[in-house]
């Protein structure tokens, strides 16, 4: 329970730090790749690997190999179709007829322990975190089509 509360607090701080036009500056150590890289390292690298090539430490234990995230342009175009990619990462709106997936539904995972009285705030924060992650994924694309 304590670990989940700490994770929620950390995600709230990250969401607040990422918001543009914030009235107060949030002081945090600079990370190459920004807050999207922090989210990626925290939630994605275990399966997708440090560089996003699908070679993370947990990759071998999965039934379906994790995607090479450096080649998302093959599915999502150049530039990436951010809205479509965000919907996939969120996962809550996908049709069940496509079968189950091993990747977590991040729309459910982010802030899973949030108080039920704040659904609009939590939903906005979820969407913002996914957007920040998608922006980071755009920066790691390795090959581009013309």
Detail the topology: elements first, then pairings.
Blueprint: H1 2-18, H2 34-43, H3 45-48, H4 73-76, H5 82-90, H6 106-109, H7 119-139
Task: Report the average pLDDT across residues.
Answer: 77
Sheet having the most strands: none
* Helical residue percent band: 40-55%
Question: Spans with pLDDT under 50 lasting ≥5 residues?
Answer: 1-6, 17-28
List SSEs in N-to-C order: HHHHHHH
Oligomeric state of this protein: single chain
Total domain modules: 1
Number of helices: 7
What amount of the residues lies in strands? under 5%
What characteristic shape results from the CA principal axes? Answer: globular
Content-based structural category: mainly alpha
Q: How far is the N terminus from the C terminus?
A: 49 Å
Key terms:
146 residues, mainly alpha, 7 helices, 47% helix, 0% strand, disordered N terminus
In summary, what is this structure?
This protein has 146 residues and is mostly helical. It has helices at 2-18, 34-43, 45-48, 73-76, 82-90, 106-109, 119-139. It has one domain.
Description:
Helix content is about 45%, strand content about 0%. It is built from 7 helices and no strands. Helix 2 packs across helix 7. It is globular. About 20% of the residues are buried. The N terminus is likely disordered.
């Amino acid at each position: 329970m304590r670990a989940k509360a700490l994770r929620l607090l950390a995600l709230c701080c990250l969401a607040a730090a990422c918001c543009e036009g914030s009235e107060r500056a949030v002081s945090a150590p600079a990370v190459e790749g920004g807050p999207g890289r922090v989210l990626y390292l925290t939630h994605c690298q275990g399966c997708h690997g440090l560089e996003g090539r699908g070679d993370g430490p947990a990759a071998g234990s999965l039934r379906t190999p994790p995607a090479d995230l450096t080649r998302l342009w093959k599915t999502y175009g150049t530039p990436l179709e951010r809205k479509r990619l965000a919907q996939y990462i969120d996962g809550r709106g996908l049709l069940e007829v496509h079968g189950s997936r091993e990747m977590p539904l991040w729309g459910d995972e982010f802030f899973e322990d949030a108080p039920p009285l704040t659904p609009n705030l939590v939903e906005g924060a979820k969407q913002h975190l996914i957007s920040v992650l998608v922006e980071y994924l755009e920066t790691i694309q390795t090959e581009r089509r013309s």
